[in-house]
């Protein structure tokens, strides 16, 4: 009887320990959901050799808007955002720091508090601000302070900087929704844009010029999103899709 109870106690403790470990593992996971595989009716999936759908679209005369994203090294963020349907242009630069016209050497010192940032010009009829923010969260760790990938420093912090006060609610609501996927607190900044200075030409389209250059972002992620084109784009998008 005593032996039976002892065995039962050992088994019970094992089950309890396993359950606790499972809870611990689950709660420690920071997990923005991956893009869902496209299903029929979701939209178009581009052919593998089409890297940037926007190069094939017309943006002249469109009512474009701008948003500013900091997500670590701007080389990768720029290349990734360039591939999102509805983005007409992306420029690498330095934002929300102290001083004027900083050089890259100034920025990496960290004392001026600039963030490596990309200026994203987009067509809101093709892609919403909410969608762009979601795309950003797909490739950054918003709970990591002053660090993304192998890059460490205040210039590598994450942030969303807006110029239209009406966008503040959209940005902050998106961050609140994103927090549901994380145990740790999101530290991505949501602030008005104070300043933005274009980076040196060396940094513009860096990964286009240097395909094997360092990048902390998996650029193939951009190819996992189905495209639901506006009417004027349907013919060309269908032609370039699988």
Automatic annotation (TrEMBL):
InterPro entries: Met_Sox_Rdtase_MsrA_dom, Met_Sox_Rdtase_MsrA_sf, MsrA_MetSO_reductase. It comes from the Bacteria. Its EC number is 1.8.4.11. Keywords: Oxidoreductase. It catalyses: [thioredoxin]-disulfide + L-methionine + H2O = L-methionine (S)-S-oxide + [thioredoxin]-dithiol; L-methionyl-[protein] + [thioredoxin]-disulfide + H2O = L-methionyl-(S)-S-oxide-[protein] + [thioredoxin]-dithiol. It is an enzyme of class 1 (oxidoreductase). GO terms for cellular component: cytoplasm. The active site is at residue 73. One of its GO terms (biological process) is cellular response to oxidative stress. The keyword Oxidoreductase applies. Residues 66-216 form the Peptide methionine sulphoxide reductase MsrA domain. GO terms for molecular function: peptide-methionine (S)-S-oxide reductase activity. It holds the Pfam family PMSR. Has an important function as a repair enzyme for proteins that have been inactivated by oxidation. Catalyzes the reversible oxidation-reduction of methionine sulfoxide in proteins to methionine. NCBIfam families: msrA. Belongs to the MsrA Met sulfoxide reductase family. This is Peptide methionine sulfoxide reductase MsrA. It comes from Virgibacillus halodenitrificans (Bacillus halodenitrificans).
